[in-house]
Amino acid sequence: MKGLVMRKFKILFLIILVSVEVFYAQIRVLKPGINSKTSFAIFIDSVTFDKVYDAVIKYKNSIEKDNLATYVLINNWKSPEEIKNEIIKLYNSKPRLEGAVFIGDIPIPMIREAQHLTSAFKLDEQRYDWKKSSVPSDRFYDDFDLKFEFIKQDTNQTLYFYYKLLPESPQRIEREIYTARIKPSPDSLKYEKIRNYLLKVSELKNKNEILNNVLVFTGHGYNSESLTSWSDETQILMEHFPEAFKVGGRFKKYFYEMNKDIKKIIMSELEKSELDVAIFHAHGVPDAQLLSSYPKASNVNENIESIKYYLRSKLRSAKENNNSVEETKEYFKKSFGVPDNWFDGAFDEEVIKQDSILSYNFDLHIDDIRKISPQPKFVIFDECFNGSFHLDEYIAGEYVFGNGNTIAAIGNSVNVLQDLFVTELIGLLNYGARLGQWHRFNNYLESHLIGDPTFRFRSNSKYAVEELSNSNNEKDLRKFLSSTDAVIRTLALKRIFDLKKESFSSDLKNFYLNDNSPNVRLMALKCLAQLRDKNFEEVLMISINDPNELIRRFSIQWMGFIGKEEFLPLIVRASFDDESDRVRYNAKSVMELLNSDKKIEIINREVEKILNEKKKYGFDRNDFFIRIPDKKREQEIFEVVNNDTLNLRKRIFDVRTFRKYIYEDAVDSLIAIASNKNKPKELRVAVIEALGWYYYSPKRFDIINACKILLNETQEIEIKNEVIKTINRLIEGPNNPFTP
After folding, report:
1. Does residue 546 have a pLDDT over 70?
2. Ramachandran bin of 208, using left for φ above 0, alpha for ψ from -120 to 50, beta for the remaining angles
3. What is the H or E stretch that residue 612 is in?
4. pLDDT of the residue at 22
5. What number is the average pLDDT over the span 39-45?
6. Do both 254 and 166 map to the same domain?
7. Most-buried pick from 80, 118, 259, 403 (CB within 10 A)?
8. Domain match, 318 and 447 both
């Protein structure tokens, strides 16, 4: 009897399902069951839908229960263009599409010739395999203005579709919608994982909890292991997560050196049911979070064992890389003055096993995650490669589609820069913003939301953040600038800037000078950095001494890239006196770029002045790691680049140095090579691309003028294309001012 009832119910369900299903060509579409201001779309492949359709319907209903009209589009998707066309149709319809999620086997755009849209990825596209040198990115789907040219589909990984960014495309990311991926490991349990995940999310959405429990972890080698950077982050997060600092909430912050068993501690913290958000700042690879390293010694014997462990690892690395083990051994003996027996056991099987276990226990691996049930609803992986959704296994996917209650995670498909502001505007999650609505403000090519983008925490606020995020009425937005809530003021500042651009510059300067919130000041600075005007340069003279470490860190970077002479004494002073290791590191790094004769003279003078001051306190030159800029490295690069007898690949490789080391004094020489018709075309293209990284240099106007002349003179399409792209990049400015 029970079986008969169930069969009748299933038949009835299918009749209902067919009644709302519409066929467009081969695409099956389930229409929304409600009306709402905006809409959402689920894109799923036919095989996955047929296997988990009951869970998809439940997931769709849970989204609509939260008042967001939802489409389901089912097809054997053949290309990214096919999906993007449907997205744009829905966006141009009413209600307007606000976001989408891709479930199962959905084509993956692999983007090339767009590395300036990432935070750090700079792999040689000519030298390395396409799978490795392309950026897996759903910005293809959610930024409608970017223009791409299809290159090819991968013959082995058939979901990979390679595209290159066109020269005439905008050279900055500004997303129209948000997107996310629901894609677990493609093993025999793949469809079961998708079903279980969708059912889990549908249930967890009903709990409607506030965000009041946060875990933050910083790993080894991150941000120069600056404790000032680590502690000052709390100033920013207190404004974003106010409920976590009240009675009934909890905010926990760990630094990897706090405990030798930090991995065990983090694993236990992740299983606490009350945890809402976990944020990881660490290094990473696709299948591991690199949390810790060999613990600092507390006595002589521990120091000796630490050195022995290090030396054994160096001998093994030498052997793996086909280098001479004996020469490596002699090098370290001479460098450190250590005896032969400190290298013992490097190739002993039992010692290798013990060292391997020790090394394994420093980090959090996929197998470790499978042994626990992660509980944070949302996880941010400020780590390289943890969001590599194009691979079979990746850390973010293991958290989201594993045993626990994690609903979504932010991860990166390739490597990322350490100096990021990953929690920018994250306080919007306290005001009912969906995860996707917040992530839409993230404009990096590599950053992806894994899991359900429609999830949101409960809000008790009077502010309607969705309306504030989308309003184009300056008068209404200005009302929010007087809010007592820093997060609301920050968002209002950004939205007005989006509308007014240059005409809002003086207001931005005033907000930086007068607002007590580090988040508001950071947003004002970021907007000014996008303008690159006089107000920006005037504010930098003050912001280099801001109370907040992150603001000082970014200010140093911008000052170095601009390179004005009046900035130099402040940069040199910061390289000595700033309490943050990371700020001092950034100051020394940008000083290396300021290598004109006059600036070298100024820097030398300021260094000697400060050293004389320090003598009073017992310091001398040997107590400081001082980087005085010179022309040697730049000259060595140009010797290679201009040497016609050398391999062209080697010459192009050296040109790429200028993408990171933006030597101001190199511009004229680079322009000369780019304009020289006798130089190899491939070399000239590489030089023109390198000139596109001089976003903040006062010489960018010289570069633009030279490129315009070159555009009129050349007939070679490859050179024309790169010239157009470089002009557009320099006019538009960096994709994200925090990571130019």
Report:
1. yes
2. left
3. helix 597-615
4. 62
5. 98
6. no
7. 118
8. no
- Joined together, the tokens standing for residue 214 give 């946060």
Which pairing describes strands 96-103 and 38-45: parallel, antiparallel, or unpaired?
Answer: parallel
Does residue 373 sit in the same domain as residue 335?
no
Q: What values do phi and psi take at 448, rounded to 5?
A: -135, 145
Let me know: does 375 contact 406? Beta carbons within 8 Å. Answer: yes
Statement to judge: residues 367 and 418 lie in one domain: yes
554 and 686 share one domain: no
Q: What is the pLDDT of residue 525?
A: 98
Q: Which two tokens stand for residue 439?
A: 């992530």
Domain hosting residue 334, numbered range: 300-360
In DSSP terms, which residues pair with 72 in a beta bridge? Answer: 30, 42
β-sheet with 213-218: strand ranges across: 21-24, 27-30, 69-75, 38-45, 96-103, 178-182, 447-451, 408-412, 378-382, 277-281, 213-218, 250-255
Instruction: Write out pLDDT tens, residues 656-697.
Output: 999 999 998 999 999 999 999 999 999 999 999 999 999 999
Per the CB < 8 A criterion, the answer to whether 277 and 380 are in contact is yes
Segment 330-338 mean pLDDT: 91
3-state SS assignment for residue 131? helix
- Please list the residues that pair with 70 across neighbouring strands: 40
Report the percentage of the chain scoring pLDDT > 70: 97
Cα–Cα distance between 283 and 464 in angstroms, integer? Answer: 37
Residue 124: partners with Cβ closer than 8 Å, 6 or more residues away: 133, 653, 656
Contact 165, 146 (CB under 8 A): yes
As for how many domains the chain has, the answer is 6
* Domain closes at, from 451, 481, 512: 451
E strands present in 310-467: 364-365, 378-382, 408-412, 447-451
- Is there a domain that residue 76 lies in? yes
DSSP 474: H
Rounded-to-integer distance, Cα 109 and Cα 147, Å: 13
Q: From residue 62, how far is each of 67, 198, 591 by CA, in Å?
A: 9, 10, 54
Q: Is residue 535 part of a domain?
A: no
Whether residue 109 sits in one domain with residue 32: yes
Q: Is residue 509 part of a domain?
A: yes
Q: How is the chain split among helix, strand and coil, in percent rounded to 5? A: 50, 15, 35
Written as one string, the DSSP assignment of 34-100 is S--SEEEEEEEEHHHHHHHHHHHHHHHHHHHHTT-EEEEEEE----HHHHHHHHHHHHTSSSEEEEE
Do residues 252 and 216 make contact, with C-beta atoms less than 8 angstroms apart?
yes
Mean pLDDT, rounded, of the chain = 93
> Rounded to whole angstroms, how far apart are CA atoms 263 and 291?
7
Cα dihedral 109, 112, 115, 119, rounded to 10, equals: 20
Same domain, residue pair 257 and 376? yes
H/E/C letters for each residue in 506-552?
Answer: HHHHHHHHHCCCHHHHHHHHHHHHHHCCHHHHHHHHHHCCCCCHHHH
